[in-house]
Amino acid sequence: xxxxxxxxxxxxxxxxxxxxxxxxxxxxxxxxxxxxxxxxxxxxxxxxxxxxxxxxxxxxxxxxxxxxxxxxxxxxxxxxxxxxxxxxxxxxxxxxxxxxxxxxxxxxxxxxxxxxxxxxxxxxxxxxxxxxxxxxxxxxxxxxxxxxxxxxxxxxxxxxxxxxxxxxxxxxxxxxxxxxxxxxxxxxxxxxxxxxxxxxxxxxxxxxxxxxxxxxxxxxxxxxxxxxxxxxxxxxxx
Length: 238
Hints:
Blueprint: H1 2-7, H2 15-27, H3 33-50, H4 62-104, H5 107-145, H6 154-161, H7 164-187, H8 191-221, H9 223-237
Helix pairs in contact: 2-3, 2-8, 3-4, 3-5, 3-8, 4-5, 5-6, 7-8
């Protein structure tokens, strides 16, 4: 599947154009709007692949793309809020303990504060990793239903998140993104080239990762089977 994901964009004869647009938008991500557009494209990738469509989507209908991207960004922010909040509280409390320990001349309080910082960072890392695991599934549930609320429906998400297929797809996607980041890091030895290549590699890797998520989601939900079963009924009704 990793091989298929890496070749996914190349299934379109205009794949170079798609990568160029996605790479440029990724390089301009500091402006926020380009990030939203890339997120919208990734939603399209998930929506297409969960239906078994091997043809990559195009960068078009920019208004719809922005709406999907904004919704995906909100989903990510909501899931990332709790780890960030907990990390802030724990680390902030630990820093306060260190300050109080220094003011009181207590090495014990300072040591306790230092331990608190380590614990806070560890807890935030674990929760952040958990959020990163949930977010693609939440985006996929939104992409399938076009309902924002479904992104937070734990009844829908729980069987997906605990399945081996989704876990394998997520780990594979993470590996693709990680390797892409490593290559970009090596290319950073050439400052300008490294920065530019990083944007394009990051986009390409993200698309490959979300291809894996969408494909796994479609297989777990039997989307193609359900649609083929529904189609005769619709024709009969007509």
